[in-house]
Amino acid sequence: MGHAADVFPHTQSAPQGKITSAVSKPAPYWEGTAVINGEFKELKITDYKGKYLVFFFYPLDFTFVCPTEIIAFGDRIEEFKSINTEVVACSVDSQFTHLAWINTPRKQGGLGPMKIPLLADLTHQIAKDYGVYLEDQGHTLRFVFINIIPDPAGKLKYFDKQH
Questions:
Q1: 118-120 and 31-36 as β-strands: parallel, antiparallel, unpaired?
Q2: SS3 (DSSP) at 52
Q3: Which region ranges are annotated with the description Disordered (predicted)?
Q4: 23 pairs with which residues across the strands?
Q5: C-alpha to C-alpha distances, 85 to 7, 66, 136, nearest whole angstrom
Q6: Which regions in the chain score pLDDT beneath 50?
Q7: In this structure, are residues 101 and 110 in contact, taking their beta carbons and an 8 Å threshold?
Q8: Cβ-based neighbours of 25, under 8 Å, separated by 6 or more
Q9: Which residues are catalytic?
Q10: Which residues contact 155 (CB under 8 A, 6 or more apart)?
């Protein structure tokens, strides 16, 4: 990953399916419990009004690929904040699982201390609203959404599916 500003491309990637129709429309509303600085806190999309928001999904806690991406976002949060941007990660795990993953040292497959919220989507509703939930597998795809919250409509401006 380059600089935080590199996340905001000049063109959109080729969207597909439900997500195609979502780009340039208001982002689906969400709220839920997140782990922030080791504590549970209620969080909602409207908390980010007036800022850019990188909102991304990852399949599950304690998987081998996801920590590198989440850690990279967390380690560079000050760069994002310098361009009026916040970052929120979301999975279908509970806030309790998120906390256990954060409390597990990085050398043992955990995240260690995190500077970005991990949002719990135990009902899978947020993932379904964003079109990234895999019913047959019980978890989400890896997706990154860029919400432009300064826009009064809070429109989705970009998404990227990662493999």
A1: antiparallel
A2: strand
A3: 1-20
A4: 156
A5: 11, 21, 34
A6: 1-21, 163
A7: yes
A8: 153, 155, 156
A9: 66
A10: 24, 25, 26, 27, 147, 148
Residue 154 corresponds to which tokens in the numbers above? 């809070």
pLDDT in the model for residue 77: 97
Tokens 């969400």, residue located: 30
Tokens of 75: 């380690």
Per-residue confidence (pLDDT) for residue 47, from 0 to 100: 94
**Local structure of residue 136 (DSSP, 8 states):** T
State residue 19's pLDDT score: 46
Which residues lie closer than 8 Å to 121 by C-beta, 6 or more apart?
A: 30, 32, 90, 91, 92, 127, 140
- Return the C-alpha torsion angle 45, 116, 51, 30, nearest 10: -10
CA distances from 78 to 73, 113, 132 (A): 10, 15, 28
Nearest of 64, 24, 31, 44 to residue 154 by alpha carbon: 24
Q: Under CATH, what is the fold of the domain 22-162?
A: Glutaredoxin (3.40.30)
Report the distance separating Cα 128 and Cα 110, nearest Å.
26
Q: CA-to-CA distance for 24 and 20, rounded, in angstroms?
A: 9
Q: Please state the φ and ψ torsions of residue 151, each to the nearest 5 degrees.
A: -65, 125
Only one residue has tokens 């304690």, namely 62
Place of tokens 């549970």: 40
Tokens at 63, concatenated: 């998987």
Mean pLDDT, the chain, whole residue set = 79
